[in-house]
Amino acid sequence: MKLSIVTIFISLPFFAAAQEDFYWVGGAGDWNDFENHWSTTSGGSPDQLRVPLPTDNVFFDQNSFNSQHQIVRV
Q1: 74/16 Cα distance (integer angstroms)
Q2: I want to staple 48 with a disulfide (CB 3.0 to 4.6 A). Which of 3, 29, 33, 38 is the partner?
Q3: How many CB atoms lie within 10 A of CB 1?
């Protein structure tokens, strides 16, 4: 039993270190609105199934906003 628990704790950092790229799309909005604002590609359609985690890469670029003075609420 102890061996199984130790194996799980040793494995956790490997899973937590996985990184994904998230691109903000669709202009102004809420950080948590992954269905409308997070994409796997710059300028792509929203297709992420979750919000970015601290280990993920987040990008805001020329395809993120469609007019001036738009904000992302966190």
Answers
A1: 22
A2: 38
A3: 5
